[in-house]
Specification:
- This protein is α/β, with parallel strands linked by helices and 448 residues long.
- It is built from 17 helices and 12 strands.
- It has helices spanning 38-41, 48-53, 75-93, 102-105, 112-133, 160-180, 202-223, 247-256, 269-274, 279-288, 315-328, 350-377, 379-387, 394-401, 406-413, 418-423, 430-447; strands at 32-33, 36-37, 44-47, 97-101, 136-141, 184-187, 193-194, 228-231, 241-242, 263-268, 292-296, 337-339.
- Strands 3-4-5-6-8-10-11-12 form an 8-stranded parallel barrel, surrounded by 4 helices. A two-stranded antiparallel sheet has the order 1-2. Strands 7-9 form a two-stranded antiparallel ribbon.
- Helix 6 links the parallel strand 5 (136-141) and strand 6 (184-187).
- It is globular, with a radius of gyration of 24 Å.
């Protein structure tokens, strides 16, 4: 193995030390959990943009990132060399998947034809290394938001020429998905929303957005691309309001435009927080609608109202996420956990890229272990079952199976005294429930 990063392959070290270093305490790919190896529950992927392209800028300062491939000064030379660095990174981290936007890979030319030619040179190198390593894209997507031409959106742009360019760029990106064997394809509407309703034709913009998605469905069929299509919700930032605000809004949009048979959701923890939800809430909403596709692994700083994309380290949140995944039986048909995460600006060394992923992978592995123990004990299942048990007998059954109506229910309710209604309710003991989950986290990981 080459040594482009000057970092050894990351080993499993267990509980040799309390200090989290360049070793896994909980993540053991082959360890069987709930009937499957950890690696099958946790199909980790590295995000090309944050990991290899993000310079750790913030609104008040220039980038601080120190990267070994910065020695290449020509943009195309760096783009081609970077592919070698990325695949060594995946191997040393023992990750089998990666995710990317088209514009992460290569610089743009003056025309789409020139840009595609540059991009194809880099994709050629990726294909070579895929063949050597078996490491493949969990998903890819098209950056229809970065360039100034997307100042007012892509599919929702009020300028037909920009819509046309967006469609051409998207077509080539779908062809790359076909060539590289992407298991999913993500649509992230980074600027598909509005800043001011006074100058916005909301209905027209949403219809245009749906039309671009339908064109993508049609072209995928034409070229034989069988990747699962995914929509990634986000409420705001950069726009005042994005049309894919959260899971529920996105599902409603897909159903309204007849696209729900072709798309599922790619959900992100930081985006859930920005929408005023927990990550577990967004996953549950997608699950009950049959729309859970894949997950991004990150977290936000709840004291800061913008997209922080921190590496996940919250055990309570990862336990909740993995409980949902275990209850579903999988993340999605072809889903995984993509680290849409970047180190903090003060963690600027190349080694910090490994450290951040180690923390994230361990945190999700720990969450899986805790959630699996909770499932084995049926703590949540029994809790919920008991709370709704009155619908498993008597009038509750007739309500759920559709035999009851307002008249039959009124007849049963007319003479019931208030004391009997109050006696039918029970305390949820919510504090004890939360405390029990804490105990599961402490006790399970203490024994792991």
């Amino acid at each position: 193995m080459s040594d482009l990063w000057n970092v050894d392959a990351i080993p499993f070290v267990g509980k040799a030390s309390k200090v989290q270093g360049l070793g896994f305490r909980y993540y053991e790919p082959e360890r069987i959990v709930a009937g499957k190896p950890m690696k099958d529950w946790l199909r980790f992927a590295v995000a090309y943009w944050h990991t290899f392209d993000q310079r750790l800028v913030d609104p008040f300062g220039d980038g601080t990132a120190q990267r070994p491939y910065d020695r290449f000064t020509d943009p195309m030379d760096q783009a081609l060399a970077k592919v070698d660095y990325t695949f060594e990174f995946y191997r040393k981290l023992n990750v089998k998947y990666f995710c990317f936007h088209d514009r992460d890979l290569a610089p743009e030319g003056d025309t789409l034809r020139e840009t595609n030619a540059k991009l194809d040179r880099v994709v050629d190198r990726i294909a070579e290394l895929q063949a050597e390593t078996g490491i493949t894209p969990l998903w890819n997507t098209s950056s229809l938001f970065t360039n100034p031409r997307f100042v007012s959106g892509a599919g929702t742009s009020p300028y037909a020429k920009v819509f046309t360019y967006s469609a051409g760029q998207l077509k080539h990106s779908l062809e790359i998905a076909k060539r590289l064997g992407s298991e999913n394809y993500v649509f992230w509407g980074g600027r598909e929303g509005y800043e001011n309703l006074w100058n916005t034709d909301l209905r027209r913009e949403q219809e245009h957005m749906a039309r671009l998605l339908q064109m993508s469905v049609d072209y995928a069929k034409e070229i034989g691309l069988d990747a699962q299509f995914l929509i990634e919700p986000k409420p705001k930032e950069p726009t005042t309001h994005q049309y894919d605000f959260d899971a529920a809004t996105t599902i409603a949009f897909l159903k309204t435009h007849g696209l729900d048979d072709h798309f599922k959701l790619n959900l992100e923890g930081n985006h859930a927080n920005l929408a005023g939800h927990t990550y577990q809430h967004e996953i549950r909403v997608a699950r009950v609608a049959g729309m859970l596709g894949s997950l991004d692994a990150n977290q936000g700083d709840k004291l800061i109202g913008w997209d922080m994309d921190e590496f996940p380290s919250d055990l309570y949140e990862t336990t909740a996420v993995m409980w949902e995944v275990l209850d579903e039986g999988q993340i999605g048909p072809h889903g995984g956990l993509n680290f849409d995460s970047k180190p903090r600006r003060t963690s600027f060394t190349a080694e910090d890229l490994f450290r951040g992923h180690v923390v994230g992978m361990d945190t999700y592995a720990a969450g899986l272990l805790v959630a699996a123990q909770m499932h084995e004990d049926r703590f949540i299942e029994d809790l919920v079952g008991e709370r709704y048990s009155s619908f498993d007998e008597g009038v509750g059954v007739s309500i759920e199976n559709g035999d009851a109506n307002l008249s039959t229910l009124e007849e049963l309710a007319l003479d019931v005294p208030q004391s009997e209604l109050l006696a039918a309710t029970h305390s949820d003991h919510l504090e004890s429930v939360k405390g029990t989950i804490n105990n599961y986290i402490v006790d399970t990981l203490g024994q792991a």
